[in-house]
């Protein structure tokens, strides 16, 4: 695939959008089918594989020992990383994470951190000295758009099923990851004047703006990110927020196997 | 389905596929007097040659192929055209049907424009040139582009053009299939969606028995298909 | 290798190993071809507790231009261990071990692929180790080989790979994790079955010359078993294609 987008493809997606339609037949407010499998990688403390349409993402959680941040001496540490590795798409390259991958990591990290999903105080072993460090690594295997939501759903599922390997580190019995919230991420793309949820790769290539909204199970907003050079009106954002709350409930209700 | 067809087999690189007297054709190699498959595909004997018809792989341009290209770069006297192959193809201003002044290329074709083109020449180290200077070749506007595996192009067209004729008759779309796996179609919006779904189905289920019937059903088509006599696929 | 002899008993009196295998027995191997949509070709291999994914992109345009070879395609392999593939988290990014493994695997394939058919182009092979449990480079070669064939890349043959080695003073096939950690020698090998050529060979530890001969024979024999599994994976993926594909000549537009 070439990174040049053909005018024909762009025009077609715009023309369809003007009629309230999308290439894959979805309505603007419908996500692609999502499925989540957990516990698939033995050596990981938690793991998940998420399929969102044709997008396919692996997430692994590792828990190691480390020192706490100076300003939070009694809290464990959470680190979320995403890489756009070249196995997943012809245009991805090797090398250190580029700004797009860093943005994905940080937006997913914010949803988990700001919803206080993990009770980090329960991950402290010795204040100021020794804490558990939770690494969440997101690896797309097949990229067909909207890694934000697929990656976030995978990270949340992997964390919810993760254990803290206390025994391996010599600090008593293993215990479940101290989870107390259930954030869900929903991403929108704006194509011309039209806003649609869960963009495919082809839709992403022609979209002007992107909006990710993370809500918790109470429907409160925990993280947001507007991306790309386009913009959203206040009314559009309000509408997205309503839909993100509703679709977030659907994501949370998904059975993980 | 005749007996001869039923015997055709999938071969894998390294499989011995030559019988005595057969020469090494495309997708094969010769070693120690024997012929082996070099590519995953279907064994095929034609005349004295044993060939492998590939089931996958990238499109490698051959001179004379009709292709759909997308302009990816521009210079003062040429364009660079992506033809869905490892080798992007330069097209000089002398190879377009317009008289283009030096430095005025953008007025005729810009980055992102799709064109119907023909592969003019491919040299030994795969320098490819394409041309638009032939009847029927032109810039494509409107409609839709769909990408399929170039190895599915034969199935997309069908025996004697039967599959493409079915698609055209059932959807009233204009359809052009490039040898490089790009398909352009244009017609009424809903019909285009139907045609696109059918094309994607052909791409993923090309190996299924009764695919033509399945596509007919999918398109709600029960009439007879117009016989295809035309040369350029349109 | 952990080096030297060890007190840990890896093989019992009856010649049965910790995981129940005989000394000359492979771990269970499962191969699936064509598992990814974006890649031109792909394969997934489960080999014991190893889980390995390989994808091929290309032949495609090679850039920057200075890496182009006017006579043949460049073959590049990236072997990567996912951070969560082993007990102790792997820092993302290429370490010296991954760089070396990538190189020896690329070297193994360069003369097997008919690279001269694609001058100036590039063939990229990506091997992702999702779960590692000793023997990932061999599993990577096996997966990459199936992915290359699945991508329609012209090549002389498939390339199977397997390791033999030594533990508790006995020669063993296909070392498991504990055997790899505390065993006495490891000899990963990849071959071209058609010609008998050995295209990947590494060794560490300690073997007598006689032991080396026998270990190599052992791994080469195992390669032939794995070769059949590779072919079977590709045949399964394309099984139904044979009867329905029209001749290209019939259907030129």
How does this structure look, described?
The complex is a heterotrimer of chains A (257), B (234) and C (253). The relative contact order of chain A is 0.18. Chain A is elongated. With 257 residues, chain A is of the alpha+beta class. Chain A is built from 5 helices and 12 strands. Chain B is α+β, with helices and mostly antiparallel strands and 234 residues long. Chain B folds into 3 domains: 3-54, OB fold (Dihydrolipoamide Acetyltransferase, E2P) (Beta Barrel), CATH 2.40.50.100; 66-140, Nucleic acid-binding proteins (OB fold (Dihydrolipoamide Acetyltransferase, E2P)), CATH 2.40.50.140; 144-218, K Homology domain, type 1 (Ribosomal Protein S8, Chain: A, domain 1), CATH 3.30.1370. Chain B has 5 helices and 15 strands. In chain B, the strands form 4 sheets. In chain B, strands 7, 8, 9, 10, 11 and 12 form a 6-stranded antiparallel sheet that branches. A 4-stranded mixed sheet of chain B has the order 1-5-6-2, with no helix packed on it. A 3-stranded antiparallel sheet of chain B has the order 13-15-14. Chain B starts with a helix and ends in a 16-residue tail after the last helix. Chain C has a single domain (29-237), classed as GHMP Kinase, N-terminal domain (Ribosomal Protein S5, domain 2), CATH 3.30.230.70. In chain C, strand 1 and strand 2 (41-47) form a beta hairpin. In chain C, helix 2 (136-150) packs parallel to helix 4. Mean pLDDT of chain C is 91; it is low at 242-253. The interface between A and C is medium-sized, with 30 and 30 residues.
